[in-house]
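Known limitations

Files may contain more than one protein. Parsers should not assume a single record per file. Below, a two-record file is shown to illustrate correct handling: read the sequence, read the token line, then continue until end of file.
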Amino acid sequence: MAGAAAVWRISPELLTALAQRLGEPLDSYVNGTQTWLTSDGPNGATLEWRLHPVASYRAPASISHYELWEQVIAQLPGPVRFGDESRRLETLWDGLECFPAYGEDVEPAPLAHAATATLAIAPDASGMVDHENIGEQWERTNGSISIVDTLFDELRT
């Protein structure tokens, strides 16, 4: 089933905006995903903000997934040091996606407008995507595809 999405490519400016405007993630996952929820969507819709890990994500060895966000934000614009390891942002996350959290019926243009108002950075693309299909592809490949690239592919068609 298709739903609206707004998508940004990773950048230090994007992470700074997330930190300043949304604060600490609501949840951090072992696979590198960071998530936030806000209630500032069109018509009061709850929006989920999901920072997607790169394809075949490999976590830094010296920290837990709960410490990842804090370590990165403290060292922007990067590269980021984790013990003896140095990583560029692009080796951690591909980009950010914003979408209605609970399957609420939101059109792409109002979603993009609300997301821009929240972050003060316009998305690189927005439109309708098939989240179920993208999730199945990611699961089927054991995370070896980029969710962000797949989102952009769907938004171009």
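...continuing to the second record:
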Amino acid sequence: MHEKTVIFDSGPLKLEGLFNDLSKGKGVVVAHPHPQYGGDMRNNVVEAICDAYNGCGYASLRFNFRGVGRSEGTYDNGIGEQEDLLAAIGYLSDAGIDRIDLAGYSFGSWVIALGIKRFEDVNRVVMVSPPVDIFDYSSLENSGRIKLVIAGSEDEIADWRSVDKVLPLWNPDARLKVIKGADHFFWGMSKEIKGILADFLKSDSAGM
């Protein structure tokens, strides 16, 4: 991966990110897992998502939410983090990327859910292990931009069966892919995540 460190503004705050500028047309913003439990932009799942998109010719921007790493500010329970996502989307747009996907893992997917109506420049949404039994995802009802959800068969935090029940409310045409043997942290499962995403990006190219 040929990423460069970038700093961008989220309101009065400076956020740090890693940007791989592979494309002037299409890209993805990736939101990391819960910052109060060690989540940051260098997470293994976040990296696997970026790798998959880069391998299909997409630019990528992963970044640290406020209060994480060198990003300024403090944790804001998913509220200020929506502003951070908006800022990251704006960064890609300013870089000449006008077809933008949004991908989130665990807490990152919840922040997407909270702000999805505000993320008007996003074409498609991908989620990995959305913890629907723990956080409120009700704002996602009838959101056709949600295209793919990846879950682990042994995930004790984001049970794939719970996701399977609510997914038709989000988008009846969305795909659910369950990785056999994976728990919430997907250790050793990067290849499987990248394979699912690569298949999705190739088959859903019309969505961009």
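Parsers that stop after the first record will miss the second one. For reference, the second record is described as follows. The domain at 4-207 is CATH 3.40.50.1820 (Rossmann fold).
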